[in-house]
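Mods, move this if it's the wrong board.
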Amino acid sequence: MREIQSGPGPLPEGGRAELNRGPVTAVIVGAGHRSLGYAQLALRQPELLRIVGVADPDQGRRERAARVFGVPDAQCFGTAEELARTPRFADAA
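Not the wrong board. Structure tokens:
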């Protein structure tokens, strides 16, 4: 069981919220070196992080990131604005 800092709102007794579910899901916004470096956690520890989307204007970078992380075409976007117009499908971006 992992503990995380609680988001907005009152904290439960003890000051921490417990997370009892699977990995955090995330969308890569900007598939450059830094983002891909941080996203490597999803490959090393998939129980903690799963990449479920990619947004990048460069088609090559977008396709490469999608291939590495197994992201379906339907969850790949050319811009962050396109991503923002879709219903939420990830915990973080």
